[in-house]
């Protein structure tokens, strides 16, 4: 039997295994890429946390069964649309991000900001903070925004990579279609934001306890179902982390629960900057004490603060856009000049301690636990959570990642990002080069040894041949 040639056969086996491993790696390359962190943040304006129990909402419940449901999210004061949408993308209280109300006056700039008239594009009002899309893009990623408040404003010189100028008449389906395009384009976004105006508008008109809200909530459930089916069609549903939430809830108003400022103080002495139920009052020059004294004990269901008296727990004091006097109505009460002002059956903006002001919160996707519930979280915690999902560095904020990390699935590689991918590719290519080097070296060494032995044999044989 011939002696086995050492070196060659084991080396072939090693190379064979290596090629097989490389082939498997390349085969799974697309799915590895699909694990790049991606997130979609969805807000249904004014969707109160308990609307899902009022009527059949199979799509919300499907999302709950496949993800995490946080039962009580404490949003920020004032519980209005713009302050809370900016909190979700900055992790800051209103006093820190500077969007302190839907209607604002900045005494330093001597400029106003109004959601009512959509006069919201003055960058200076937004630039006390830097929203997540600015950071996301600085870190080399792309963002797509479908009507999210503030995403059609240039903030610190930046718009989202793709965005839709705000237009209420653009349908939900069109907004979803744009997002799907952005997530699946050749240069895809890693982060999408989707905003829808309902059920807030109808909640104001009807009041949250009105049975007619049933069909409105059912319609939102159908819209969520549509979003999920489109994500599934685009093969995004299993690889994207979706957060479905809202900015605030809604409470029932009544024409029996109205506080009329005209009954207590002369309208010539002050200006109302932001309206019921948390009324921002700017007294005329030198009239602060007079207006405050007139209102302080005026009505048992209205709490009136001088700015410096606003409780610390509301985090609503340290900003020049917070006016010198704040009058806050109790739940279900309204503050108006007088009853001729007009009236709606639902409102929000009240103390953020009230459950009626709290939004829905669901999180579904590969990063999250399945069929899990969490009792409470703060809306400020969403920002560090999103930064974790996107594998980007959060800016200083009022939230806590530790407070919400228990909603994450433990074993899933949440942040298999571009850096990780580059490392894996590097290791494979590096090992390949080392294997080639070893192959060439060993082959060269064996050949040299063989030649040397052959020469020695030849030299040793020569005298015999000469004989
Ligand atoms: Zn809202």
From TrEMBL:
Subcellular location, record wording: Membrane
Superkingdom of origin organism: Eukaryota
Database matches in SUPFAM superfamilies: Alkaline phosphatase-like (SSF53649)
Pfam family, one: Phosphodiest
Main location: membrane
Membrane spanning stretches: 421-446
Membrane topology: Single-pass membrane protein
Swiss-Prot/TrEMBL cofactor(s): Zn(2+)
Keywords: Glycoprotein, Hydrolase, Membrane, Metal-binding, Signal, Transmembrane, Transmembrane helix, Zinc
Keyword check for Signal: yes
Cross-referenced InterPro entries: Alkaline_phosphatase_core_sf, Phosphodiest/P_Trfase
Family affiliation: Belongs to the nucleotide pyrophosphatase/phosphodiesterase family.
PANTHER family linked to this entry: ECTONUCLEOTIDE PYROPHOSPHATASE/PHOSPHODIESTERASE, ECTONUCLEOTIDE PYROPHOSPHATASE_PHOSPHODIESTERASE FAMILY MEMBER 5
Listed name of the protein: Ectonucleotide pyrophosphatase/phosphodiesterase family member 5
């Amino acid at each position: 039997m011939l002696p086995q040639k050492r070196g060659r056969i084991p080396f072939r086996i090693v190379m064979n295994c290596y090629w097989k491993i490389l082939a498997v790696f390349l085969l799974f390359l697309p799915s590895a890429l699909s694990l790049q962190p991606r997130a979609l943040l969805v807000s249904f304006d004014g969707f109160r946390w308990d609307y899902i129990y009022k009527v059949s909402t199979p799509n919300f419940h499907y999302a709950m069964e496949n993800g995490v449901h946080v039962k009580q999210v404490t949003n920020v004061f004032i519980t209005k649309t713009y302050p809370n949408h900016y909190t979700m993308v900055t992790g800051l209280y209103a006093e820190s991000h500077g969007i302190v109300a839907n209607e604002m006056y900045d005494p330093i700039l001597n400029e106003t900001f109004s959601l009512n008239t959509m006069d919201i594009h003055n960058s200076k009002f937004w630039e006390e903070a830097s929203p997540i899309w600015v950071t996301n893009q600085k870190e080399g990623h792309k963002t797509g925004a479908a009507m999210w408040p503030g995403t059609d404003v240039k903030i610190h010189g930046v718009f989202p990579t793709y965005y839709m100028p705000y237009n209420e008449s653009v349908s939900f389906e069109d907004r979803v279609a744009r997002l799907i395009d952005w997530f699946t384009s050749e240069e895809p976004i890693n982060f999408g934001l989707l905003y829808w105006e309902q059920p807030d508008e109808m909640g104001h008109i009807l009041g949250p306890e009105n049975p007619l809200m049933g069909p409105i909530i059912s319609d939102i459930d159908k819209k969520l179902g549509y979003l999920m089916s489109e994500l599934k069609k685009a093969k995004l549903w299993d690889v994207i982390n979706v957060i479905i939430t809202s900015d605030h809830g809604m409470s029932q108003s009544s024409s029996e629960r109205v506080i009329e400022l005209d009954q207590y103080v002369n309208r010539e002495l002050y200006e109302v900057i932001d309206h019921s139920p948390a009324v921002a009052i700017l007294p005329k020059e030198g009239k602060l004490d007079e207006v405050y004294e007139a209102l302080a004990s005026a009505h048992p269901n209205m709490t009136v603060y001088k700015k410096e008296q606003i409780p610390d727990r509301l985090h609503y004091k340290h900003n020049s856009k917070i006016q010198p006097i704040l009058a806050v109505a109790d739940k279900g009460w309204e503050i108006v000049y007088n009853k001729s002002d007009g009236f709606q059956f639902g409102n929000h903006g009240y103390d953020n301690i009230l459950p009626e002001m709290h939004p829905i919160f669901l999180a579904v996707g590969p990063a999250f636990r399945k069929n899990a519930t969490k009792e409470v979280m703060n809306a400020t915690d969403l920002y560090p959570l999103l930064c974790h999902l996107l594998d980007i560095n959060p800016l200083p904020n009022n939230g806590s990642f530790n407070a919400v990390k228990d909603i994450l699935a433990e074993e899933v590689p949440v942040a298999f990002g571009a850096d990780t991918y580059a490392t894996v590719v590097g290791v494979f290519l590096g090992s390949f080069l080392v294997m080639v080097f070893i192959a060439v070296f060993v082959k060269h060494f064996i050949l040299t040894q063989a030649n040397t032995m052959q020469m020695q044999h030849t030299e040793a044989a020569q005298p015999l041949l000469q004989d």
